[in-house]
Amino acid sequence: MSLNMDLEKSPNTDLLAANATTNPDAFAEIYDLYFPRVYNYIKFRVGDPYLTDDLTSQVFEKVLNRIDTYNQYRGSFTAWLFTIAHNIVVDHLRKQKNTPLIFLDGDNTKGPNPKVEDAIIAKELRDNLFLALHQLGDRERNILGLKFWSRLTNRKIAELTGLSENNVGIIIYRVMRRLRVVLRDLGVNSYE
Question: 0.85 exceeded by the pTM?
Answer without folding.
Answer: no
